[in-house]
Specification:
The chain is flat. Helices cover 72% and strands 0% of the residues. The chain has three helices and no strands. Helix 2 packs antiparallel against helix 3. By secondary structure, the chain is mostly helical. The termini are far apart. It has two domains: 28 residues; 58 residues.
Amino acid sequence: MDDRVARPLRILAEYLEPEARFDRLGIIDTVVFFGSVRIHSREEAEKDLKDAETAEDADGDVAMAEKALNTSRYYEDAQELTRQMTEW
């Protein structure tokens, strides 16, 4: 099937499958967090920075790794918020 034609069906399936699972489990309300693969956990960002600092041909990788470490707080904050909301 043409990807363009099938796209609405895939989107609908991505909506209906979780809805059916929630119904089976008796889940009424949900909160959805959307993220990005560009934001890493602090642990992963620290490892990437260490790797960049020890690489022989870093060529800007250190600066990018430092930036990733600085933005890792958003990952950690989102994780903490979801934990608190789950407990609530």
